[in-house]
Amino acid sequence: MEFRLHGANPLKLYELFGVEPPAKIYDFSTNTNAAPQRGGFSPNLREAVEDYPDDECAALRALLSANFGVEKENLLVTSGSNEAIYIIASYAAARENFILQPVYGEYLRALSAFGAKTRNIFSLPAEFPEGSAVWLCNPCNPTGEFIPDAEIYRTADGNPNVFFVIDEAYRDFIWTEEELLPLEQRPNVIRLRSLTKIYDMCGARAGCVAADEKILSRLRRRQPSWSVGGLAQQAALFFAADDDLVPRTKKYYSKEMPRLISALNSAGFRTLPTSVNYFLTEIEDDEKFIRFLLERGCVVRHTRNFPSLDGRFVRIAARRAEENDVLIAAIKEYR
Question: Of 321, 331, 315, 324, nearest to 142 (Cα)?
């Protein structure tokens, strides 16, 4: 069976398996935030639909600048981090690109689309060839492993002629005790942030790039005008103004993740360590396991397209406590 490249869109998985979707579906395949968001979002739909959006995302860049501790001149807002990945990849065709695996599949997909040379690596060495680029997700999707900031800074500083593309989509989900250093701008480091995951607004595509102004100038040349829609900007401005969300998120997952993982371990499943809101659990027959859960309304993420995982695990993202209880009950029944 050929699985889809990503999680989410659960009805497509039901169609693939030929399973009738139940009235209620619990989607553990997508890594969006289950912590409560602030209420009261009331978009101006007339403005969002009829007016051209701000092509510079000035208000949103100012807000994100304060949130991330980065000068607004060092920020570029994009239509989700995927747009940024493809724009960066368009400049990478002449480089040798090292991808730290296992990882999100869009890096390879984007680089391949532009004919770039790629090579998988499974640890971060101290040195890279001159003029190459390194792609990594930190914390890692799908494992949840976090590489300390000091190690990445040390590697980047030791390779000044190598570009490091660091996807930090899940940084705000870290609930374990990690030494998180302030964002320090470097001329060879490009950081990606997704707003859709932490603010649970995947339908409104918004993300950003933090990088040196010279890098951003080149990226802007290949970004379509008005790529970030008005509704996406309104949503991001509203939800990103919630100063308590990140602490609230960490507090929620620091309690719920150990509970969920412990329940799976008690049911006889081996799970891998994680620092964020999702984790891997080892499974003997992924197709059988996924089908069993689908029949009980629970959707998890396969790992067949992740090098070194190869379907021996499934990825599970924690949801609300009552939803997690449904999954726990289904997994206990499977055993």
Answer: 315
Measured between its terminal Cα atoms, the distance across the chain in Å is: 23
Residues 6+ apart with CB under 8 A from 50: none
Strand partners, 96: 117
Confidence of residue 5 (pLDDT cuts 50, 70, 90): confident
Domain ranges of the chain: 10-33+245-334, 45-239
Architecture field, domain 45-239: 3-Layer(aba) Sandwich (3.40)
Strand partners, 207: 78, 194
Q: What is the pLDDT of residues 42-71, one digit of tens each?
A: 999 999 999 999 999 999 999 999 999 999
Q: What is the architecture of the domain spanning 10-33+245-334?
A: Alpha-Beta Complex (3.90)
Instruction: Flag whether pLDDT at 152 surpasses 90.
Output: yes
Strand order in the sheet with 313-317: 278-282, 313-317, 301-302
